Amino acid sequence: MADPSVSPEPVLHVAAGLWAAGVLKSGIELKLFDALAPGAQDVAALSQALGAAPASLRVVLDALVAMGFVARQARGIPSPRYRLHSWSRRNRRTSARWWQTMPIAQPCLTCAKTTAAW
């Protein structure tokens, strides 16, 4: 029988934190927040403006929606549009400068490996 005092919870919390940090860093490095600053856009327009693969960009956008940095507008629109959440609009410039000083591991959007930002 498994020992009930052993739990994977602490490891899962760390993994979730690393994932969230990597998603946020990806959005900043792609200049996604700058691209969304003028207003809501769909994935096709953002993909072309940023030079990012649409499928990968949608994953990052939806993760940023789940984290509360980006909002998704889907009602009555054939292709969902994404816009900055109000917090992101207010803090876009200062948070980008702050984030660039943080060394973390970042998931690579084009491959299955992790790249270090040390």
Give an overview of the whole structure:
- The structure is a single chain.
- The chain is an alpha+beta fold and 118 residues long.
- The protein has one domain: Arc Repressor Mutant, subunit A, CATH 1.10.10.10.
- Helices cover 53% and strands 14% of the residues.
- The chain has five helices and five strands, in the order ααβααββαββ.
- The protein has helices spanning 9-29, 32-36, 43-50, 54-67, 86-99; strands spanning 41-42, 70-73, 81-84, 105-107, 114-116.
- Strands 1-3-2 form a three-stranded antiparallel sheet.
- A hairpin with a 7-residue loop joins β2 and β3.
- α1 (9-29) crosses α4.
- The longest helix is centred in the first third of the chain and has 21 residues, at 9-29.
- The protein is elongated.
- The N and C termini lie far apart (42 Å).
- Residues 103-118 have low confidence and may be disordered.
What's the short version?
The chain has 118 residues and is an alpha+beta fold. It has five helices and five strands; from the N terminus they run H-H-E-H-H-E-E-H-E-E. It has helices at 9-29, 32-36, 43-50, 54-67, 86-99; strands at residues 41-42, 70-73, 81-84, 105-107, 114-116.
Percentage of residues assigned to helices: 40-55%
CATH fold descriptor: Arc Repressor Mutant, subunit A
Report strand order across the widest sheet: 1-3-2
Biggest sheet record: 3 strands, antiparallel
Low-confidence blocks of residues: 103-118
CATH class: Mainly Alpha
| Total separate domains | 1
CATH architecture: Orthogonal Bundle
Mean pLDDT: 77
List SSEs in N-to-C order.
Answer: HHEHHEEHEE
Can you count the beta strands?
5
Q: Which value, in Å, is the CA radius of gyration?
A: 16 Å
Strand content: 5-15%
CATH superfamily: Winged helix-like DNA-binding domain superfamily/Winged helix DNA-binding domain
Shape: elongated
Number of separate helices:
5
**Secondary structural class:** alpha+beta
Span between termini? 42 Å
